[in-house]
Amino acid sequence: MSLDTATQPPTAERPTTQLSELLAALTLEEKVRLVVGAGLWSTTAVPRIGLRAMHVSDGPAGVRGVSESADETSASFPAPSALAATWDVDLADEVGHVFAAEARRHGVDVVLAPQVNLQRTPVGGRHFECYSEDPVLTGAIAVHVVRSAQDRGVGMCVKHFVANDSETQRTSYLARVDERTLREVYLAPFEQLVHDAQAWSVMSAYSGIDDGTTAATAAEHRPLLTGVLKEEWGFDGVVMSDWVATKSVVGAAEGGLDLQMPGPDGPWGDGLLDAVRAGDVSEALLDAKVLRLLRLAQRVGALEGVEPSGAHRDRVADVDAREVLRRLVSRSMVVLRDHDHALPVAPDDVTRIALLGPNAVHPFVQGGGSAFVRPDHLSTPEAALREAFGEVEVDVHPGAVSRLLPPALDLAGRCTTPEGHAGALGELLDADGAVLAGADVTAWHGWLREVPGLAAALRIRTTVRLDEPGRHEVGVGTVGKHAITVGGQLLSTSDHVVGAEVILDSSVNQPVPATLVIDVTEPTTVEIDAVVQAVHPVGYASFARAELVHRIPGTSPDELLAVAVEAAAAADLAVVVVGTNEEIESEGYDRTSLALPGTQDQLVKAALAANPRTIVVVNAGAPVLLPWLDEVPCVVWAWLGGQEWPEALADVLTGVTEPTGRLPWTLPAHESDVPVPDAIPVDGVVDYHEGVHVGYRSWLRLGRTPAAAFGHGLGWTSWEYEAVTCAVDPDGSVVLDVTVRNTGARDGHEVVQVYVEPPEDAPDRPVRWLGGFSVVHASAGAHANVQVRVDARAFRTWDSAQPGWVTPAGTYPIRVGRSSVDLRLTVDVALPRTAPA
Questions:
Q1: Which one, of 394, 788, 314, 339, lies nearest residue 567 by Cα?
Q2: Taking Cα atoms as reference points, which of 286, 166, 81 lies closest to residue 589?
Q3: Which of 39, 176, 372, 533 has a CA positioned 20 to 30 A from the CA of residue 704?
Q4: What gap in Å lies between CA 413 and CA 522, rounded to an integer?
């Protein structure tokens, strides 16, 4: 787990002469086209030099592929935070292998992942998509994922460079981060990926950076993109823009951007050729960018006659993706509390299970945005528990309300077209309102994809049958110009024409519907007539968005709770699954609260009162408040687990796989304690006021006690830390030999965590910070020895006055333990001062 920043030699793989010859054969026009995307997910091909198009794809939790077809499915990975929760770099290697296999399966050359921004605030909308609040853990896991995938000939695009750690106004805000904080915290994972994994691609962020010297958008920040990334670190890959994030021609070209995505339009598609001809951008600078593109093409095998990279390129398919993902999500689960050794549950000890909670009925397995894929496989907790427990009765009840928006309208079951057919009539209209095409639809998921260019709007008409007595809610959610009429009432209208911005801010994913509330005493009908904009966004495929919704009269929250409590009381075991959902965790917007949505807290307390043998499973990616944590005998944090989540949960409950996860972030007990409670820009600026004290470092500095500390996790056995010795390597790294003993009754895994503390009177250093870690396995009652390396950089700090890295002289206490606060052993290491480097 090296953090050495010394410049690495160029990789031997690079056929520099061949690439230079190909560059010389290109015309100026071809070179310009090469640095602009050919489409949404592809680069430009030049067949006459043997260059095919390269295909890129989201994303961080599975390779989506480049097709918009609903028939194309993918392996749905657990959220990246779950991988970091294993603290297991060997497992990260396996995940990189699965990424490569999935990329090859979908014809993808470069996967737009991993996301190595840090979890600066728990309300960040893409918190689940990041690895950790700690740069060392983030870098170590990401290095193994990237190196493993690239070793198999598939590129990974590390994102988002840099300090793009929240979603509110993410396409426009300026992150104000001082140079030392950038160097020690936010740049650190990127630096490690360049030096230890030789990453082939980096994506610049939407947002901008003000480092105290230069304030610019990420794609135009020359001191960072060119000065640090390319020149200082020696990055020889491609810097590509985030989608539609390129704002200028000359500024981005001079700043260090190599590839504008997507294309072929946009600033570079429209103006780069003229800028080169006018001398505003030198052809030599353009050539350097094209050479990087050709090098990437060589590495992924997109250049005929040039040897591709990857020592294990021909062994990509040699992996069982479902087995790896199931084991990953099982291992990632964190036992927050297990007061009476409730885990694992013996199947023959249970005849009736009450499976309760909104997420028990509809598990939330993947967050919204770039991380979303159409899963190859879907199951339910009920089916998984029945399979795992055998002859057992499973009573499933939601017990609480957690979603605020109405569910989808049942077109096939209760709707008819104006002609009396089942479903709804959809018609494409031109700018004058004339009908271009029409069709009846009975299956509608809220989107019409690849809308023809002549279409200005989509009109949907249907009659909804309302049979049930009580209060119904019927409506339509959309974005852009629209007119929504329900029951003869114009509920919402707008003349505002939208474009790519609704994709970038994710408002298109969860549009709040305009609805009509109807009190029904006898069966009736209501008509929907919605005209919604056909959106033709620059850089993206055209679409029309109309989320048809209908909330039927339902059971009240009190009634839902009563039914669930009755089931819990009658069961041998109650498993309560609470968590977030697609309305809460998504790219494009930050959360406004850390509380569990709806009435889920009441459900937990009531179920526990009815049955003391209750296990609570938290199905969420980012931290939520658990006000009942100290009352429930057993609580398991189970993440957003991807397609294998239900089966993996059953494996954990029945003892097939040990839940070995440790928290990669801090779990707050109270919202008011959170050091960075939000990242709302003030006058367009997000001020990183906490400096290097990110995450658990701020909790320690402020003396606040969280519900569960960074690194916490119990597994299903207990451990004693017996001894530690250390030695200092010539390069200043410290190697610790740690002896632990499994004092429990089961074989198990332990994550040995090593933290560094500063010498006395050290100026503005964190109270302690993660220096290294290692996973060890031991049989029940057995000892195990493990070696943990703390790289020399862990002791260094950035001296902006010099500028350069220095190691302050002094005695550093090295703490060894089970979390950032549960520390069992200490060894002191005296280090001399090092000169700025």
A1: 394
A2: 166
A3: 176
A4: 18
Q: What are phi and psi of 395, to 5 degrees?
A: -100, 120
What are the residues facing 448 on neighbouring strands?
544
Cβ atoms of 603 and 400 closer than 8 Å: yes
Mean pLDDT of 194-203: 98
Alpha-carbon distance 837 to 831, whole Å? 16
Q: What is the mean pLDDT of residues 316-323?
A: 95
67: which 2 tokens?
Answer: 């097709």
Q: Are 650 and 347 within 8 A, CB to CB?
A: no
The upper half-sphere exposure of residue 364, i.e. CA atoms within 13 Å in the direction of its Cβ, equals 27
Quick check: helix, strand or coil at residue 505?
Answer: coil
CA–CA separation, 224 vs 160, rounded Å? Answer: 13
Residue-level pLDDT at 68: 75
Q: State the average pLDDT over residues 332-338.
A: 98
Tokens representing 402? 């957690």
Residue in 385, 320, 435 with CA at minimum distance from that of residue 645? 385
The confidence band for 549, taking pLDDT boundaries of 50, 70 and 90, is very high
CA–CA distance, 148 with 154 (Å, rounded to integer): 9
pLDDT (mean) for 150-165? 97
Q: What residues form DSSP beta bridges with 439? A: 426
- State how far the alpha carbon of 391 is from the alpha carbons of 348, 349, 351, 396, 664, in Å: 9, 11, 7, 16, 37
The identity of residue 203, as a single letter, is: M
Q: What is the mean pLDDT of residues 796-809?
A: 94
Q: Which of 201, 298, 193 is nearest to 241 (CA)?
A: 201
Res. 509 pLDDT band, cuts 50 70 90:
confident
Strand duo 174-176 + 685-687: pairing: parallel
Mean pLDDT within 655-666: 98
Q: Give per-residue burial for 599-609: e unless 16+ CB within 10 Å, then b.
A: bbbbbbebbbe
pLDDT at 510 over 90: no
Q: Quote the CA–CA distance of 638 and 133 in Å, as a whole number.
A: 18
Please, which pLDDT band fits residue 650 given cuts at 50, 70 and 90? very high
d(CA 576, CA 629): 13
Cα–Cα distance between 744 and 742 in angstroms, integer?
A: 6
Instruction: Work out the mean pLDDT of the chain and round it to a whole number.
Output: 95
Joined tokens for residue 815? 């703490």
CA–CA separation, 603 and 446 (whole Å)? 32
Does 1 have pLDDT greater than 50?
no
Q: What six digits make up the tokens of 622?
A: 């980012």
For residue 243 the two structure tokens come to 């989608």
Amino acid in position 471? R
User: CA–CA separation, 25 vs 37, rounded Å?
Assistant: 20
Contact yes or no for 246/268 (Cβ under 8 A) = yes
Q: How much of the chain, in percent, has pLDDT values that exceed 70?
A: 98
Residue 143, token pair as written in the block: 């290095």
Sign for the CA dihedral angle at 191, 192, 193, 195 comes to positive
Alpha-carbon gap, residue 513 to 516, rounded angstroms: 10
Quick check: 59 and 371 in contact, CB under 8 A?
A: yes
111, 141, 142, 645, 806 from 132: Cα distances, Å: 20, 10, 11, 20, 26
Burial 10-19 (b: 16+ CB within 10 A, else e): eeeeebeeeb
State how far the Cα of 543 lies from the Cα of 458, in Å rounded to an integer: 9
Q: What is the pLDDT of residue 233?
A: 98
In order of 46, 109, 186, 225, 792, the CA distances from 190 in angstroms are 31, 21, 8, 11, 17
Half-sphere exposure of 140 (CA within 13 A, CB side): 28
Question: What would you report as the CA-atom Rg of the chain, rounded to the nearest whole angstrom?
Answer: 28
Q: How far apart are CA 788 and CA 776, in angstroms?
A: 11
- Per the DSSP assignment, residues forming a β-bridge with 302 are none
Burial of 833 (0-12, 13-18, 19+ CB in 10 A): exposed
